[in-house]
Amino acid sequence: MAKSFSIKRQPGFATIAMLCFFLLYLPIATLVVYSFNSGTSIATWEGFSLRWFESAWNNQQVMEASWRSLRIAAVAAVIATACATLAAIATTRTAPYRGLTFKYSIINMPLLVPEIVTAVALLILFSRIKVWTGYSGLGYLIVAHAAFCIPFAYMPIRARLESMDLSLERAASDLYASSFQTFRYVTLPLLWPGILAGLMLAFVISLDDVVITEFVKSGGQDTLPTYMLGQLRRVVTPEMNAISTAFLVLSLAIVTVFFFLSRNPNKNNE
Amino acid sequence: MTDSAQDVGEQRQKKDVRDRWLLSAPALVLILAAGVGPLLIVVFYSFLAPGSYGDVKLEFSSEGWFNVLFTRDIFDETVSLADAHFLIFWRSVKLAFATTVLCLIFGFPTAYFIATRAPHNRSLWLFLITIPFWTNMLIRTFAIQEVIRSEGIVNSFLMSIGLISSPIQMMFTDFAIMLGMTYVYLPLMVLPLYASLEKLDFRLIEAGYDLYASRFGVLWRIVIPLVKPGIIAGSILVFVPALSAYVVPRVLGGGKNLMLGNLIELQFGQGRNWPLGAALSVTLVIIVLFAMLYYVRNASKSGGSAHG
After folding, report:
1. Which of A24, A109, A127 has its CB closest to that of B35?
2. B194 touching A (Cβ < 8 Å)
């Protein structure tokens, strides 16, 4: 519809949208720029330097917290994705059956309950278990993270499953493949991009968590976000900016890969 | 179909459903054990008496719930309304509401803008909205802090153009919390709005213009009613986490501008009043449930009328 009068235009909307994008990126951009500041101020620019990245790299606490964050996120994401994959297979491509809605609501529950309430609930539960069993390792954090990551891993896997063609699997079973063989050689390879996308989403979500980790962690179990939360109360140096920038680049890389992975099935449909 | 074939079919169906329960068991068990189940413990704890050093004593007490709204004087036992709690409830609701409105004011035009781009460009614009969403919330809060601090770029800019002579104190105010929450939750508003706007049938808008509607008339009487489900979804998605926010008010509000999330934390930390903390948590969940219920009822209603 090439008319001089565009029916889609609304006055001022494009301006507000541009302003919105500008304001979304301005604080992040400032943060990143000042991580390269050579001075100790996070407000006055004194020249380019990598000293704060170096200082973060040499900061024992930061490195330990980062390493712990990555380990927890890796294990929790794998557990969550495995559970989510099975659950997605169990809840898609079927006629409605009794309990299906129940499953949906349980799986999505972590998205609905305020994080602070889950955090408090886990604090109560785990502090009891800690007293009973005497175990106070990273297991609690991994279980907590895996639980709230499930709905995030579930979404892309389910989307992928629903866009998949059933006929290939029918063909496989027509050719006398057992149901396991069908799954292993037909369903799984087709589902793989969805599973990877789910894994990455779960990984990022786990890596970003502050509230639940803050309540569940035992002494000396700081993850990078809880370490940063503690530091924000003190005088902040550009070292925080450097840590944030590194963290940001990592998340961004993962999300970009996720974006391309989850885009594929839509392209096939178009 | 013969009887036996029907039997086989039925059996296969039963086995299928059983397999599906087995497959979904790990996810369900994990979420029930570490997500939903513990909530019941919170409800239970809200009816117990506080222990002297945190935790609880195993005896029934309604004091936790009583303390949500009232305080008892330590010396003469007189009961008065818990002003501090009312203040925090009010601040939470007020700031969450203001945040939702701000997100709507900024988010609606943005979502509309994205939805009216050429189809192959839309995913890029959407990606630009989701990037901040996937970067750590703490980092985004920290970024806002950097911008609005007394020595931050907003104040230095205003001072350099001579608009103000001394920095405006923005940190540790309700305004800072509202700004931070709007910044952090904006993508949650844009995404569902976009999902609704993308499906908008622009022939209806053309019809509106053919009938001499003004730009504003089309927006107000055609676009907004049609995307109402998206507006409600986005508003709930922003309002709920804003109401229970913890990180943003802790960082930007300083120690004194508490919101509900911080009040709850306080009871499990310095306050050492776990039953009160539990009762406050249950209250928060109830408010959230009502918001959800409102959404579900309205979404189904408007969903029906949009097609009518």
Report:
1. A109
2. no
Q: Do residues B137 and B65 share a domain?
A: no
Long-range CB contacts (within 8 A, 24+) of A15-18: A16/B106, A16/B109, A16/B110, A16/B113, A17/B109, A17/B110, A17/B112, A17/B113, A17/B114
Residues of chain B numbered 241-260 and touching chain A (CB < 8 Å): 241, 243-244, 246-247, 250-251, 260
Mind listing the pLDDT tens digit of every residue in chain B (308 residues)? Answer: 556 667 777 887 888 888 888 889 999 999 999 888 899 999 999 999 888 777 788 888 888 888 888 877 767 777 777 788 889 999 999 999 999 999 999 999 999 999 998 888 888 898 889 888 888 889 999 999 888 888 788 888 888 888 888 888 888 899 999 999 999 999 999 999 999 998 888 888 888 888 888 888 888 888 888 898 889 889 988 998 999 999 999 999 887 889 999 999 999 888 788 999 999 999 999 988 888 888 778 766 654 444 33
**What is the Cα–Cα distance from B108 to B102, expressed in whole angstroms?**
10
Size of interface A-B (CB pairs under 8 A): 257
- What global pTM score does this model have? 0.87
Q: What does the DSSP 8-state code read for residue B211?
A: T
Run of H or E residues at B57:
strand B56-60
Chain B segment 26-65 residues within 8 A of A by beta carbon are 26-28, 30-39, 41-42, 45, 55
Total number of domains constituting chain B: 2
A22 inside domain: no
Query: Is the torsion defined by CA of B296, B299, B302, B307 positive or negative?
Result: negative
CA separation for the pair A125, B41 (Å, rounded): 8
**Residue numbers of the domain that contains A111:** 60-269
Residues B125 and B203 reside in one and the same domain: yes
Q: Supply the ipTM of this predicted assembly.
A: 0.86
B251: chain A residues, CB-CB within 8 Å: 229, 232
Residue A43 forms part of a structural domain: no
Domain end (from B35, B59, B79): B79
Residues of B in contact with A232 (CB under 8 A): 138, 142, 145, 251
Which residue segment(s) compose the domain that B62 sits in? 3-79
CATH number reported for the structural domain that contains residue A156 in this entry: 1.10.3720.10
> Based on the domain organization, do B133 and B27 belong to the same domain?
no
Question: Which of B47, B79, B111 is the last residue in one of the domains?
Answer: B79
List the single residue in A7, A120, A144 with the smallest CB-CB distance to B264: A120
